[in-house]
Amino acid sequence: xxxxxxxxxxxxxxxxxxxxxxxxxxxxxxxxxxxxxxxxxxxxxxxxxxxxxxxxxxxxxxxxxxxxxxxxxxxxxxxxxxxxxxxxxxxxxxxxxxxxxxxxxxxxxxxxxxxxxxxxxxxxxxxxxxxxxxxxxxxxxxxxxxxxxxxxxxxxxxxxxxxxxxxxxxxxxxxxxxxxxxxxxxxxxxxxxxxxxxxxxxxxxxxxxxxxxxxxxxxxxxxxxxxxxxxxxxxxxxxxxxxxxxxxxxxxxxxxxxxxxxxxxxx
Length: 267
What we know:
Blueprint: E1 2-5, H1 12-27, E2 43-45, E3 48-53, H2 63-75, H3 89-99, H4 107-125, E4 132-134, E5 144-147, E6 150-153, E7 160-162, H5 165-176, H6 182-192, H7 201-222, H8 230-241
Antiparallel strand pairs: 1-3, 2-3, 4-7, 5-6
Helix pairs in contact: 2-6, 3-4, 3-7, 4-7, 5-6, 5-7, 7-8
């Protein structure tokens, strides 16, 4: 089994929701790491919460297996009875932008990015989005395990009921932002059954600035403790401020895994 030690910011109800989400997904036929035995609630240890789930191993699915799994998740009836939270990515990004210290960004650039974020949010709000059970909004290979019975979801802390666009677009951003092999996205979208970069191009265009600002913030925050991340943070900021069209030439790092054998940490 896996013992997951939650950070000090995680409340009991949030850790409990992950357990309930796993059970609800399993009941709906979506493979995931289930709670172990009779340990059905978070346990406190040294002021931190710990939950226990099955160990599904370290192998990751192929792009087609991941695409099929995400499509099945999105077809699942919304899990409304377990209290899945709503998530406002724009508000989260605005707050994180305000919290960046002066050493990370000038007041002028901060104001420009706030303006860009507001414009992106306005375009985003003009679209009528479908609703579904979604994952991280940036799902990648590290968010799923390949078991003897097929692929299974892991990391359920950000599962919510919202529109599936960010899940659909995640692999496309690996291609268009980080230069990943286009064949990976083609295989993923083919298995999913929908290419958001063509059939849903207006949605993809509306989401990309929000994703870009969030991905910049990941590096800007990281550079506070890891100075070697500062160059990439500045490169991302300059790309956004210049309103450069895709493709971008960012270095993959904290945001997400681009191929099954590359790992990173977005938290």
